[in-house]
Task: inverse folding
């Protein structure tokens, strides 16, 4: 059935942001090994001078393989470099060298100078234009992780730099430099303003057939309008029978990466498809929500974020001049999401979201039918999960697999259900096909880069849905579950600047177990070869 809750769910699925890539790790340039020349002598052991961050025992493990060998001076310099590498792996910045000494009984001393943090220096690449984020904000965020006078910890500094990258309006690169005092090391932030206005315009055919499958949408983002790294987003979407708008404001909180996101959306729809227009169905959906996010872990290879959110939703559905339903849903959700990069090539993303809420049908014309039917009114809980892995096979070919699913403790309203069909689900079926309180969805893709502009994807989709958690009520569907399968090809094009397009062909495998009496799908069609087309321009 077409209603405001189902249409809003579809918009959220099709407009989900792409998974961001993890930043590439910054690799220090490899030092050239000194040539092995000169006389050698037997080394019976090593002594360390100036070490406080790593113990004598830890350093002796590093040099153990060199004890008892005949080493040249150049090879001893390599041992000192190995000690510095051990510090670096532990996150510390040091300089290690061979001090002037007389080697007695084959025992060699290694001097270690452990760097102390000096200050943060912000360098504006374009000095004629003020930074879009206040320089003091950048400094304070680093100093919250790395205090002056303390040993330089590159792990803490790296985490601070990664959190700076999440601020809107500025691009930051950090590098360590000699400080003003002996043994001091400063952090230099080289900054440049990001574009103030960015966005995209998109056309696709992923919309609901009932309200018009052709969608025209646009996004606009204002970067750091108040110079604190905040962002203001506006999203608009139009089809023949619907209009949708969403505005969101994201603002950093504190110095450790916390953010608050406030959003509101509104959807208005009229059924325009001839097969459904006799119903004269129309309605609206409005939402307002707030989310607080906090970074639990930030490294060059792994991200983990926790979020707590609350949302209030209002749905109205009419048939001509007759009201069908008018109800509200209030939810609170807790989520964990993360990414992990394996060796700088493979990428795994995952999320877990628990939502509890209340469907309030008080005063709604649909309350009586619900009470004697699915009984969605009242408290509910659901758990959504997602895991996706992408692994390169060679320079041109990669494999990607995605698992998504939902579990629920009772029958859910259409706005809270799990949907299988659509351009991001089982692509051989329409976006309104196969909805249920619980379900799983698997997408497997073999991606091939044909050239710098074109890529080809072969895919297989599988989904299973349970319509109702409790199907023992009058009028319940005879078939309480469905399995959909499909496969196909996708051809993508990008000019690697500001335009991209994608054409998807999908063919169903097997039949639709929940087909209508005439064999068609729930949207009244029977499309055995389905095509999806998306074109986007970025600015």
Result:
């Amino acid at each position: 059935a077409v209603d405001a809750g189902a249409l809003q769910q579809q918009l959220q699925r099709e407009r989900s942001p792409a998974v961001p890539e993890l930043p590439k790790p910054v690799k220090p340039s490899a030092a050239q090994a000194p040539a092995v020349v000169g006389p050698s002598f037997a080394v019976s052991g090593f002594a360390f001078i100036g070490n406080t961050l790593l113990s004598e025992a830890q350093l002796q493990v590093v040099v153990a393989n060199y004890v008892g060998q005949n080493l040249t001076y150049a090879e001893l310099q390599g041992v000192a470099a190995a000690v510095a590498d051990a510090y670096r792996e532990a996150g510390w910045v040091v300089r290690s060298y061979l001090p002037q000494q007389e080697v007695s009984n084959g025992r060699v001393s290694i001097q270690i100078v452990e760097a102390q943090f000096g200050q943060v220096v912000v360098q504006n690449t374009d000095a004629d234009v003020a930074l879009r984020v206040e320089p003091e904000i950048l400094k304070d965020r680093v100093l919250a992780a790395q205090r002056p006078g303390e040993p330089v910890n590159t792990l803490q500094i790296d985490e601070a730099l990664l959190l700076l990258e999440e601020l809107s309006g500025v691009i930051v690169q950090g590098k360590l430099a000699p400080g003003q005092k002996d043994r001091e090391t400063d952090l230099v932030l080289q900054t440049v303003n990001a574009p103030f206005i960015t966005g995209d315009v998109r056309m696709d055919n992923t919309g609901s057939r009932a309200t018009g499958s052709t969608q025209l949408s646009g996004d606009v983002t204002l970067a750091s309008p108040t110079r604190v790294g905040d962002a203001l987003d506006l999203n608009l979407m139009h089809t023949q029978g619907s209009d949708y708008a969403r505005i969101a404001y994201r603002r950093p909180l504190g110095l450790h990466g916390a953010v608050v996101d406030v959003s509101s959306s509104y959807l208005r729809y009229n059924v325009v498809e001839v097969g459904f227009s006799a119903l004269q169905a129309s309605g609206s959906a409005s939402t307002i929500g707030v989310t607080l996010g906090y970074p639990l872990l930030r490294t060059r290879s792994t991200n983990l974020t926790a979020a707590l959110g609350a949302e209030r939703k209002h749905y109205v559905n009419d048939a001509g001049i007759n009201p069908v339903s008018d109800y509200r849903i209030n939810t609170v959700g807790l989520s964990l999401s993360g990414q992990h990069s394996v060796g700088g090539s493979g990428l795994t993303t995952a999320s877990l979201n628990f939502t509890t809420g209340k469907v309030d049908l008080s005063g709604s014309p649909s309350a009586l039918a619900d009470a004697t039917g699915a009984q969605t009114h009242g408290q509910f809980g659901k758990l959504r999960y997602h895991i996706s892995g992408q692994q390169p096979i060679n320079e041109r070919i990669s494999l990607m697999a995605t698992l998504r699913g939902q579990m629920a403790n009772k029958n859910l309203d259409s706005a809270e259900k799990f949907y299988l069909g659509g351009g991001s689900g089982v692509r051989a079926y329409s976006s309104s096909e196969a909805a249920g309180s619980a379900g799983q969805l698997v997408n497997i893709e073999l991606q091939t880069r044909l050239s710098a502009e074109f890529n080809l994807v072969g895919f297989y989709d599988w989904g299973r849905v349970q319509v109702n958690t409790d199907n023992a009520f009058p009028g319940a569907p005879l078939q309480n579950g469905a399995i959909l399968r499909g496969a196909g090809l996708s051809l993508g094009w990008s000019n690697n600047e500001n335009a991209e397009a994608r054409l998807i062909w999908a063919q169903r495998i097997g039949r639709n177990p929940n087909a209508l009496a005439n064999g068609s799908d729930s949207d009244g069609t029977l499309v055995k070869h389905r095509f999806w087309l998306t074109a986007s321009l970025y600015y």
Observations:
- Residues 83 and 286 are 61 Å apart (CA to CA).
- The helical segments are 4-14, 56-63, 73-89, 135-145, 154-165, 274-277, 367-371.
- The domain at 40-113 is CATH 3.10.20.310 (Ubiquitin-like (UB roll)).
- The first helix runs from residue 4 to 14.
